[in-house]
């Protein structure tokens, strides 16, 4: 019998969240972002769930090859572009779109002999200071690309630093869009500006953010970049990490739990041991009280997370027993809530899921 820890992937939730992205930005095409093995949900599953997307976006060339081998014929965008000349030849062969954000990448394109032109997304640095040409250098970079026979369509793109917080005191979306407008000027070409945060705020800033493409990522998987909860945006959890109680201990005042004996009981308690630990991707730094569901009842973590196990408080759950179902995040317990308690973000929890965790597919609210 396999270990009871399972990551249940809800394809119906993935499809629902893609539809929500479309509803937020109804005049835009959608790049569904599937980097990092579709945020830990599995590339092949995401490809099936996002069949209605206009394109898929990621950073890994081998995964782009895999998508083509699996039969994905729509556009694929490489968000970090090429790293060497061999990448460019492969991009042309597979019909990939590539981001261009450095002079070095333009030089590689100019030197290449390709069977046909590649479509590019020219990236502008509008204040995040990660990748892209400054607004002042953007026009010249576009002109150099436009003069190359190796280049097909050129889309214009940027990335928001704080789209989840419209009134951010340092770099609000409106300021980044002002930089984008100044740098792009009258340059023709499709626009791609919105990540999940921008998509979720699209209704409030439609006149500012309207573009030809949006690039939702975390929202497709039932998380948010910050601010309001996923449920408030009508998003559904796409992954439920579930396990079971595999042992029970009855302790009294003064007893301790776990490595380091950091947790000390103040009175009688019932402790449940759960088959999940940091080697499975659960955050080791999650503190006492981090929320957990046992048989649908809310409780919390007790003591330090071990490699393969963690402990929870069963004192108020009378019917709990060995075999009781435990939800660590997902259906009934938003991943962002767990992440916030652990001092991290839902992105990290999704992407950190270990390969040893068994994955199954089931519709949301059913448990296979």
Describe the overall structure.
Helix 1 (11-24) crosses helix 3, helix 4 packs parallel to helix 5 and helix 7 crosses helix 8. This protein has helices spanning 11-24, 35-39, 43-49, 61-69, 85-94, 103-111, 135-146, 173-184, 196-200, 206-209, 335-341, 346-351, and strands at 6-9, 29-33, 55-58, 76-78, 97-100, 118-123, 151-157, 191-194, 213-214, 239-251, 256-257, 263-264, 269-274, 291-294, 297-302, 310-313, 325-329, 358-361. The radius of gyration is 23 Å and the shape is elongated. The mean pLDDT is 95. The chain has 368 residues and is α/β, with parallel strands linked by helices. 27% of the residues lie in helices and 23% in strands. The chain folds into two domains: 11-224, Alanine racemase (TIM Barrel, Alpha-Beta Barrel), CATH 3.20.20; 239-361, Lyase, Ornithine Decarboxylase, Chain A, domain 1. Strands 2-3-4-5-6-7-8-9 form an eight-stranded parallel barrel, surrounded by four helices. A six-stranded antiparallel beta barrel has the order 10-13-16-15-14-17.
